[in-house]
Amino acid sequence: MAWWKNAVIYQIYPKSFMDSNGDGIGDLKGIEQKLDYLKQLGVDALWLSPIYLSPQVDNGYDITNYRQVDPHFGTNADLAQLIAASHQRGIKIIMDMVANHTSDQSPWFLESKRSRDNYFSDFYIWRDPKPNGDPPNNWGSNFGGSAWEYVPKRKQYYLHYYAKEQPDLNWENPLVRQAIYDMMRYWKAHHVDGWRMDVITSISKDQRFLDYPNPHHLSVVMGNQNNGPRMHEFIHEMHNEVLGPFSMLSIGESPAATSTDARLLVDPSREELDMIFTFEHMHVDRQPGNINGRWAIQPINVVQLKQTLAKWQDALRDHGWNALYFENHDRARTPSRWGNDLHYRYESATAFATVLHGLQGTPFIYQGEEIGMTNPHFSLADYEDIELKTNYEKLVNQQKTISSDNFLKAARKISRDNARTPMQWNDSPNAGFTSGQPWFKLNPNYPQVNVAADQQAAKSVFRYYQRLIHLRHTQDILTTGQFELLLPDDPHLFVYRRVLDHMQWLVMANLSAEQQTLTDFPTSGEIVIANYPDLQVGQNVQVNVLRPYEAAIIALPD
Ligand code: GLC
Ligand code: CA
User: Which of 558, 556, 91, 554 is nearest to 358 (CA)?
Assistant: First the structure.
């Protein structure tokens, strides 16, 4: 069995994890200092968000040199040292690969925009203006405005799905593809174990570049910008060139994939990717079809959440493998977003963890999730994320389709910055993250919510995660057991069965702040894990009622 099938992977956002030299920015040496902490948690691999040379317009997702560590984070030697120190502890290293676009400061792009006939001219996607000078089509950027930017020198527009400082690479050009594969082999030679691939399902563009039907002439982001015509071909080629021969793990970020697309991407016989990060289950608190997109929030729809996750469990059963996550650097903190961070922070953090880690797939934990970190309650001026700022400008100032107040309400629930506040290690100034001025405001609750406090608390999110991870390592039923959703229409309870041979486990959580009654199926058995302290592991119980955010896994008798 592949190592990652019973593994748990931990994502580090280096900028906010641990600062070793007091400049206020987290760095590679800081990560190394915390390896024993991560080993204690029990994770098998670390995924590092980008640490390459970058102007940091999008916090490193805008790269100028794929082979050089940004001085903010340290040196290439620091990285080599971190990889070696991780490997010594049996922890693998997965790097972020941002191959849909580079920074506009990349030497490749600087050359490309200089003329139409140099080696790099076709490394990016250049098109002539429309006869009236307008952009080639009405595609939008994910960060607001048109996806095209004009360069007078070439008298052409270039395409950028994200900021204008993040020009999209032209994957139609075989030289681009080879340059990316070379870079991947370079890091393999430096002992990197695998890749998390940023928006990899956007690399192939429909070369017709057709306008979207759009009577309002707004730039919008729609289907054509994902899952393009040659996507599978390019990814398969990458598999043949690098992933297969050098056995590197691959997890592709796949914003618009349906479970049907996913099955094609991760079916081992097709030799593309090992897993993908899907977004469908993360849209359960978004008003469908609203012009304000993800800023049009609604309370979590638990039925939609569990039915979506169940659909993916079924779709990939025997045809691939799920990547399981609720949090990452683009997502808010679950207790604040979907749970209750005021009265049930511990309970809601652990309830969501239980239903996620009980599924088939590889769970990902985002830094701070393992201690139940929460969203900060910032005011608009405190946020710094380019996505938030560009969307505010577009939706509040230009389109005027959402009020500033409602935008702020949404930002406090779902904005990416919620996950990017520095890691809270202890109750000393700046939470032990830095001895200097932190690059980004801390969540003011750090004197109460921090690693040191949590590890000693009677109700410890950290110890709960340790136990979940231990179960993933030791219990085959979690890796290979069949999955069956129960009570699919219950608006509060998320309950499912895992079955392996004669073994049956019931995974259950009450995802509400009110007590719920369980009926319809047997609920007596032995506690495998539970988040209310009066239920002890190994104890035989009969569960009829689940208290607020109560969660448990119960082994049913043979
Ligand atoms: C991915 C990253 C996100 C970044 C974007 C552009 O979605 O996770 O942080 O802004 O791609 O690279
Ligand atoms: Ca630093």
Answer: 554
Q: Is residue 202 domain-shared with residue 260, that is, in the same domain? A: yes
Beta carbons of 158 and 149 less than 8 angstroms apart: yes
The residue with tokens 């059963």 is 317
Could you list the residue range(s) of the whole structural domain that residue 29 is in?
A: 3-100+174-463
Query: Which residues of the chain fall below pLDDT 70?
Result: 215, 522
Three-class DSSP labels, 360-408: CCEEEEECCHHHCCCCCCCCHHHCCCHHHHHHHHHHHHHCCCCCHHHHH
Q: Using the 3D structure, point to which of 463, 490, 509 is the last residue of a domain.
A: 463
Does one domain contain both 389 and 531? no
For ligand 2, the distance from its centroid to the CA atom of residue 79, given in whole angstroms, is 14
Ligand 1 nearest atom to the CA of residue 329, by list position: 9
pLDDT of residue 215: 65
Beta-bridge partners for 493: 510
- Rounded to the nearest angstrom, the distance between the alpha carbon of 35 and the centre of ligand 2 is 17
CATH number of domain containing 510: 2.60.40.1180
What is the domain count for the chain?
2
Kindly state whether residues 426 and 511 are assigned to the same domain: no
Residue 393 domain-assigned? yes
Residue 258: which residues within 8 A CB-CB, separation 6 or more? Answer: 280
Ligand 1 centroid, distance to 555 Cα (angstroms): 40
Q: Which residues contact 206 (CB under 8 A, 6 or more apart)?
A: 224, 228, 229
- Whether 134 is in a domain gets the answer no
167 assigned to some structural domain: no
> What is the CATH classification number for the domain harbouring 306?
3.20.20.80
224/352 same-domain check:
yes
**Which residues sit with their C-beta closer than 6 Å to ligand 1?**
58, 61, 98, 162, 198-199, 253, 329-330
Q: In 3D, which of 136, 155, 52, 61 has the Cα closest to residue 102?
A: 61
**Is 198 noted as a catalytic residue in this protein?**
yes
CB 409 within 8 A of CB 421: no
Report the residue among 198, 251, 384 best suited for mutation to probe ligand 1: largest number of ligand atoms under 8 A from its CB.
198
Catalytic residue list contains 272:
no
Q: In this structure, are 347 and 250 located in the same domain?
A: yes
Q: Is this structure's pTM higher than 0.85?
A: yes
pLDDT in tens, 74-122: 999 999 999 999 999 999 999 999 999 999 999 999 999 999 999 999 9
* Coil vs helix vs strand at 154: coil
